[in-house]
Amino acid sequence: MRDACHSSMEKALFEFMFSTGCRIGEIVTLDRNSINWGSNSAIIRGKGDKEREVYFNVRCEIWLENYLNERSDCDPAIFVTERSPHRMSIAQMRYIIKRISNRAGINKTIHPHQLRHSYATHLLNNGAPIDVIQSLLGHEKSETTRIYAQLSGKIRQEFYNKYF
Known about the structure:
The protein is mostly helical. It has helices at about 10-20, 25-30, 60-70, 90-105, 110-125, 130-135, 140-150, 155-164; strands at about 35, 40-45, 50-55. It has a three-stranded antiparallel sheet with strand order 1-2-3, with no helix packed on it.
């Protein structure tokens, strides 16, 4: 999907979703002043109106800066519509992810929430403890996190070989 992003807005949105694991509802409410460029992080409001800090990688930082520098509007929102810029809605963000996945030739509908699952799985496959993933996702219960994060077969086998 990364290669199917055309505009800097699409690249910034995809990278932000994938590298933070944020829910789409958290991203639409995000404002520019919520970004801490020094620590590549953002303060978001999650479920239950709880605040948490999320982090993004350098690739996301680059595309986010490119996208924001290209904009000439004064809207406080991180992501705005292309015409007559105003805060993007959840439906508009879903449409953009669908458009990117269609361009990528993916034969099934990709929903933004699947990027959140991919984020959790990526962390788990790279050795992140489940409690850390739980905290990054803003989950209250570890059971919820376990649904999101699934070890790939190869990684499971490596862990088996290491510990058995």
